[in-house]
Amino acid sequence: MSRIGKHPVPIPAGVDVSVAGQNVTAKGKLGQLSVTLVDEIDVSKEDGKIVVKPRGDGKRARMMWATSRTLVNNLVKGVSDGYTVNLDINGVGYRAAVQGKELVMQLGFSHDVKYPIPEGIAIKTEKPTSISISGFDKQKVGQVAAEIRGYKKPEPYKGKGIKYVTETVLRKEGKKK
């Protein structure tokens, strides 16, 4: 039995969830999201909660049980609370600023790196060395954060680059004489 899949997904106040076959749609104050679940999973709405169960005892049904429950939970949490990923910039002269619909970063290259901000994503830079990415789609927020981090990953000798706030960079010892 799946430890994650057996727990029903609670629906918070202000969120409207509709289940039509394998499609689950959630509407909240931040937006609307939907997901289509695989055929091996049975999803239903029961007294303010969404219950996800496997249809059979097959291996794929058991594998997709917790995955489907997590996808539905991400929908509900996204439209009610949203998701935020914070990035830190380390390095002399490295900085970022939001200009219009672009994130402009100076990362030690001969040119500024300009990243267009996608729809449904909000990027803030309270300090020139910190970036806050927020939105209601967990996958999109994580993808944008990974793309921005990919411009200058943290290097192990001085720790320069863009890193997640929760990430620890394993530092290496420099060369010896």
UniProtKB/TrEMBL annotation:
<feature type="domain" description="Large ribosomal subunit protein uL6 alpha-beta">
    <location>
        <begin position="91"/>
        <end position="164"/>
    </location>
</feature>
<keyword id="KW-0694">RNA-binding</keyword>
<keyword id="KW-0689">Ribosomal protein</keyword>
<keyword id="KW-0699">rRNA-binding</keyword>
<dbReference type="Pfam" id="PF00347">
    <property type="entry name" value="Ribosomal_L6"/>
</dbReference>
<dbReference type="GO" id="GO:0005840">
    <property type="term" value="C:ribosome"/>
</dbReference>
<dbReference type="InterPro" id="IPR002358">
    <property type="entry name" value="Ribosomal_uL6_CS"/>
</dbReference>
<dbReference type="InterPro" id="IPR000702">
    <property type="entry name" value="Ribosomal_uL6-like"/>
</dbReference>
<comment type="function">
    <text>This protein binds to the 23S rRNA, and is important in its secondary structure. It is located near the subunit interface in the base of the L7/L12 stalk, and near the tRNA binding site of the peptidyltransferase center.</text>
</comment>
<keyword id="KW-0687">Ribonucleoprotein</keyword>
<comment type="similarity">
    <text>Belongs to the universal ribosomal protein uL6 family.</text>
</comment>
<dbReference type="InterPro" id="IPR019906">
    <property type="entry name" value="Ribosomal_uL6_bac-type"/>
</dbReference>
<dbReference type="InterPro" id="IPR036789">
    <property type="entry name" value="Ribosomal_uL6-like_a/b-dom_sf"/>
</dbReference>
<comment type="subunit">
    <text>Part of the 50S ribosomal subunit.</text>
</comment>
<protein>
    <recommendedName>
        <fullName>Large ribosomal subunit protein uL6</fullName>
    </recommendedName>
</protein>
<dbReference type="InterPro" id="IPR020040">
    <property type="entry name" value="Ribosomal_uL6_a/b-dom"/>
</dbReference>
<feature type="domain" description="Large ribosomal subunit protein uL6 alpha-beta">
    <location>
        <begin position="11"/>
        <end position="82"/>
    </location>
</feature>
